[in-house]
Amino acid sequence: MTAFDALPPCSILLLAGGQGQRMGGRDKGLIEWRGEPLIQHLHRLTRPLTDDLIISCNRNRERYQAFADHLVQDDESDFPGPYAGIRAGLAVARHDFLLVMPCDTPLLDLALLQGLRRSAAEHHDKPVMIRQGEQWEPLLCCIPTRHAQVFEQHWQQGQRSPRRTMAELGAVPLQCEANDTRLANLNTPDLLIDINPQVSR
Question: Which of 35, 51, 139, 141 is the most buried (most CB within 10 A)?
């Protein structure tokens, strides 16, 4: 039995539904990094951890299907943001916890995900969010799926900040160092180049 086996089962949500404005409108999850689409790096990391792998995407569904057990998409056509993806993921998740991460964080590792899952199990009904130094990272979190209705209610009330909803639910931090490279968001062309010296300018 591994340490992961001892933790409660979780659903996992990979957020790939953004407009990719900083990438010139490209679909970030499908941009290649070190020879593979970003989504493939996250798939390889998360696939062993769940039998309920969900991807939130709003285009190129046929390509994302190969990496997911279930696809969800926003019910609005103007890329309303990550809250919509989290809301959709919570609505279909099959387990008691939903582990959430964006598709442009390929340096995440198993230790960090295990920490999120363990902390969520310890706090039972409270979401857990990564905090990098003093900065909260609400898109790297683990949410008890019992709160799906709260997210839906807040959405209907016009809430678009996942952090605010989770704060109202008593979110607790999983603390990381301010310069933790595992949390790097590769969401601009320059960042993709800087973190991969094999790519020339």
Answer: 141
User: pLDDT tens for residues 14-54?
Assistant: 999 765 445 446 798 999 998 999 999 999 999 999 999 99
**Architecture of the domain delimited by 10-194:** Alpha-Beta Complex (3.90)
What is the spatial distance between Cα 190 and Cα 197, in angstroms, rounded to a whole number? Answer: 11
Indicate the range of 46-50, 67-71, 160-164, 196-200 predicted with least confidence: 196-200
Q: Which amino acid makes up residue 91? A: A
If one counts every other C-beta atom within 10 angstroms of the C-beta of residue 74, the result is: 19
pTM to 2 decimals? 0.88
Strand ranges inside the chain, DSSP E:
10-16, 32-33, 36-37, 53-57, 70-72, 97-102, 128-132, 135-144, 172-176
